[in-house]
Amino acid sequence: MLSDHQECDVVVTAVAPVGTAIHTQGYEGFIDQAKHPSWRSDAPRPAVGDRMRAVVLDSTRKPPRFSALPSDIRIARSLRCTEPLMRLCPPPPAEDARVVAWDAVEAALGIALPADYKRLVETYGGGQFAGTLWLLEPGCPEEMYDLVAQTAEREETLADLWDAGEAEPPELHDGAARLVPWAYVEGAGHMLYWLVRPGVEPEEWTVILNGGRGPLWESHAASCSRFILDVVAGTTTSTYFTDHEDTADPADRTCFRPNSHILS
Fold it and tell me: Quick one: fold of 82-262?
């Protein structure tokens, strides 16, 4: 059975003015005209027998809707980590889901944000995973846990540290990259950032982590949802979380505590 965000190799079986019929893994599907690379580029128009990579956008449609756009494939790859996280660490009730004015948030930050982060905030809201990892959210009444406020504060703090002689992480040596915080480790003070680089799509940003009591940095080629999933599942390779299984309350391991409960 097909599922949303699933990535497949597909074969074109028919072409019409409105889109392309495809076949994959025993299922029929459809790629709307605007979801094929030829719609907005010089890529060749689809033809019967073409093989391509595509991702499921809506498995409930008949036939299921796919996209062959590289941007949609990147977004789907980042979103796939949110599904197992939600199974392992259930989110708050659906009626508590957040509605965020993302255009305003992204304008304030000067960047587009990863799709998996937006989904985490809309599904969970800001709060604490596994008793330790605090997801920042836009619009939090406490500035310590607000995405926009912490971005401004950390930029100023890091600039002061580097002006004072502390070494920058090597990932910033080309001068074009930027660090944007997205999570905080309560107690230890570790801060987790996205490594934002020009020309790199948000879904391809990696995680870079700075210890709260020293100048050491740690990089992970993972999305924020992948990193959280590994912490919750106990499969993380981060040295900052190696003793988490020993120090965390077992009841907290697969528990999420929203800001609305903690800060009240």
Answer: SMI1/KNR4-like (3.40.1580)
